[in-house]
Amino acid sequence: MMTLLAFVLTLAVLIVVHEYGHYRVAKACGVKVLRFSVGFGRVIWRRQNGPEATEFTLSALPLGGYVRMLDERDGPVAPQERAQAFNNRPLWQRVAVVAAGPLANLLLAALLFGAAGWIGSEEPKALLGTPAAGSLAEHAGLRAGDLVRATSLDGQQWDEVRALSELRWQLSAAVADGRKLWLELSDAQGHGRRSVMLPTDTLGGGELDAAMLRKLGFGGPFSEPLLGRLAPGAAAEAAGLRAGDRVLTIDGIPIVDAAGLRERIRAAVQPDGQPRLQSWRVERAGQTLEIEVQPKVVDEAGHAIGQIGALVGGPPELVLLRHGFIDGLVHGVERTWETATMTLRVLGRMLIGQASLKNLSGPLTIADYAGQSARAGLPQYLGFLALVSVSLGVLNLLPLPMLDGGHLMYYLFEGLSGRPVSEWWQRQLQRIGALILMLMMVLALSNDVARLAGLH
After folding, report:
1. Above pLDDT 70, what percent of the chain?
2. Are residues 293 and 198 in the same domain?
3. N- or C-end of the chain: fewer Cβ atoms within 10 A?
4. What is the pLDDT of residue 409?
5. What angle do CA 89, 77, 428 make, to 5 degrees?
6. What is the pLDDT averaged over residues 204-227?
7. Total structural domains within the chain
8. Alpha-carbon distances, residue 272 vs 67, 276, 321, 427 (angstroms)
């Protein structure tokens, strides 16, 4: 239910803001607006203050909206109203009306990013856990307990990193751009500073999803190798382990964090598929104990892994991220610009085959992320809403017929040639644009289904 409500709210906010941008600028330019609709299809609610006023409607299919303006191309217009027809307004006003929708989405995104910064949130510190075996992070020499202090795309100009979310943002930008990323590291106390280079340019671009994070080697934040709640009768309880035990070694191998502990437990499977008996050394109430543990073998996506039936890992160290009013606004504008340019670069790389088409997401993925972010808290949901608003703004500015960007291309032609695009050409381009958009929607929906099925 939370996912559905968050998704509906996301659609409602973004659609209303986008269409209000068109509506507000149209009214300011003297264009008569006949209808402001949220959704398509059968009208289920309407309101109109008078026969000459704009009709506001809510329609049955809420996947979009539109603003219908007086226009001689749609039907006859009374002589006294011709000056209010959209097609009779000066070129610069038509450009302003069309561009206002996407720009409203970008403005909304900046305000939402800023609001999330004003509210603030406690987030895991950029203290790294054990990198995944064979990952870029492992090959680069990153270790459990490394604190990422700053990042750089050129090894010269550095950006401070305060939390794991900021590190992931920089990783996302580097992967999307197909560029290397330098990290400035130290231990948790700030000693032993060094820098390493991650060859993120070798990953082929794309979205920083769970699969990409595994390739990079970045999982969750650093977590102490502590045991939490034990499942009754499971392997951990049967071996005599207790909640609060700190694991020091397994089979003589030091355990430095929860990620390393999980890997040792998962690897406790012999070649014949039987569980491997492990020798654990744990610290309990100041005493060191030797305990024999035999994890249970279970199947996970076709692979045999070990499990002990206990929560693994202590809580991560948190930092408070919060901006003042002016800093929040600046942060919102910067993050909107970075997100918009990153989106365009990924689209461009997809167009020339340098990034996978799997990066296209549709309504199912948006709904899933909406629910996850809403459950995480208000700042996280506002940030998600801002990201989707940027995506909507950028998508609508693409020079495709049927989108706002396509109409802006018509007006660019009109401005350069002194004559509008002919109706015949507009009809042909509309057909091409509709086909392209339909293919994009089918691809995005198929990617959604594949993600939910665990195929991506």
Report:
1. 96
2. no
3. N
4. 93
5. 70
6. 78
7. 3
8. 66, 10, 49, 66
The verdict on 307 and 359 lying in the same domain is no
Do residue 218 and residue 232 come from a single domain? no
Whether residue 15 lies inside any domain: the answer is: no
Out of 312, 334, 353, pick the residue that ends a domain: 312
Distance spanning both ends of the chain, measured CA to CA: 25
**294 shares a domain with 165:** no
Structure token pair of residue 207: 């979205």
187-207 pLDDT per residue, tens = 888 888 999 999 988 887 666
C-alpha 428/C-alpha 432 separation (Å) is 6
d(CA 435, CA 89): 30
Sign of the Cα torsion 419, 425, 431, 436 reads negative
Confidence (pLDDT) at 116: 93
Which residue type does 71 have?
A: D
- Please, which residues have CB within 8 angstroms of residue 186's CB and are 6 or more apart in sequence? 146, 147, 149, 192, 193, 194
19 has catalytic annotation: yes
Task: Say whether pLDDT at 274 is over 60.
Answer: yes
Task: Examine the fold and report which residue of 288, 312, 336 is the final residue of a domain before the chain moves on.
Answer: 312
Query: Which residue, chain included where needed, has tokens 């249970």?
Result: 296
Give the per-residue pLDDT at 60: 85
Domain residue limits at 165 = 121-222
Instruction: Tell me the DSSP string of 390-425.
Output: HHHHHHHTSS-TTSHHHHHHHHHHHHHHSSPPPHHH
Q: Are residues 456 and 326 part of one domain?
A: yes
Higher per-residue pLDDT: 357 or 129: 129
Considering only residues 132 and 286, tell me which one the structure prediction assigns the higher pLDDT.
286
Q: Is 134 left (phi over 0), alpha (psi -120 to 50) or beta?
A: left
| pLDDT, tens only, 381-436 | 999 999 999 999 999 999 888 889 999 999 999 899 988 888 888 888 888 888 88
* DSSP H or E segment with residue 287: strand 287-293
Give whichever of 107-116, 139-148, 412-421, 427-436 has the largest mean pLDDT: 107-116
Same domain as 237, residue 110: no
319 phi/psi in degrees, rounded to 5: -130, 150
Q: Which of 19, 123, 166, 184 is catalytic?
A: 19
Is residue 240 left, alpha or beta, with left meaning phi > 0 and alpha meaning psi from -120 to 50? left
Residue 81 lies in a domain: no
Q: What is the CATH number of the domain that holds 243?
A: 2.30.42.10
Same-domain status, 207 and 260: no
In a domain, 31, yes or no: no
In angstroms, the CA 105 to CA 20 distance is 10
